[in-house]
Write a structure and sequence with these properties.
The protein has helices spanning about 10-20, 25-35, 40, 50-60, 85-100, 105-110, 120-150, 160-185, 190-200, 205-215, and strands spanning about 60-70, 75-80. The protein is mainly alpha-helical. It is elongated and about 70 Å long.
């Protein structure tokens, strides 16, 4: 189970990862996180940044060190990470790396209602997804290779490698599913097709639905 944290918004983790580099004011933090592509690694709602920073300050994960003013811009508070904040960063990283948590990708949600589509349409849509996915994979491989040519350490590209591996696995699985659908080898394909062409739910599916929804 994920640990209950004083500030559980993942944006707080991103802020800690920035402030471990050096003290910054919130605008600098946002600029650094965008530059590092942290919004590609986790869901970040930028409008929550100042609220998250205030909560982190309140709970002692960061602390204000000075206020600065640049030209006619508003005064900005510079924060640094505290010892408690460093401990939280390490503990949070340990949890995220070591503990699997069930997540709910949109594709999984779509697959869970795949029966709502005619199998021919489902096949066409899966081909479209595979084409788009392969385009993304080509771009991602080139981007990763470019970073490596720039001698960026793999340690700072490991999340990109993970994304690439996950997408490659998804593409391989879709290819396998498409092969079964197009060859007719997919189990229950005839019943699935008959349902959409006649509007009648096969008896075995009705029985299954009733059995699995029973509370007895």
């Amino acid at each position: 189970m994920p640990k209950q944290r004083k500030v559980s918004n993942l944006l707080a983790l991103a802020v800690l990862s920035a402030l471990v580099q050096r003290p910054m004011h919130p605008y600098e933090i946002a600029t650094a996180l965008r530059g590092w592509g942290k919004d590609q690694d986790m869901e970040i709602k930028w409008g929550s940044l100042y609220t998250v920073v205030r909560n982190m300050d309140k709970h002692g994960l960061i602390e204000a060190v000075e206020s600065v003013r640049e030209g006619r811009r508003p005064e900005r508070t510079v924060y640094r990470i505290t010892d408690d904040g460093r401990a939280e960063l390490v503990d949070w990283a340990r949890e995220l790396v070591s503990t699997p948590v069930r997540e709910h990708p949109r594709f999984r949600a779509g697959l869970s209602v795949l029966a709502a589509l005619h199998p021919d349409e489902a096949t066409s849509l899966l081909r479209r997804r595979l084409d788009l996915l392969e385009d993304h994979l080509t771009a991602a491989r080139e981007e990763l290779a470019q970073y490596l040519r720039q001698n960026i350490p793999r340690l700072f590209l490991v999340e990109s490698e993970y994304d690439l591996a996950i997408q490659e696995a998804e593409a391989a699985w879709i290819r396998s599913l498409l092969a079964e659908l197009t060859s007719g080898a997919y189990p229950g394909l005839d019943a699935w097709r008959a349902f959409h062409e006649t509007g009648e739910i096969p008896a075995e599916l009705t029985e299954l639905a009733e059995r699995t929804s029973s509370t007895d």
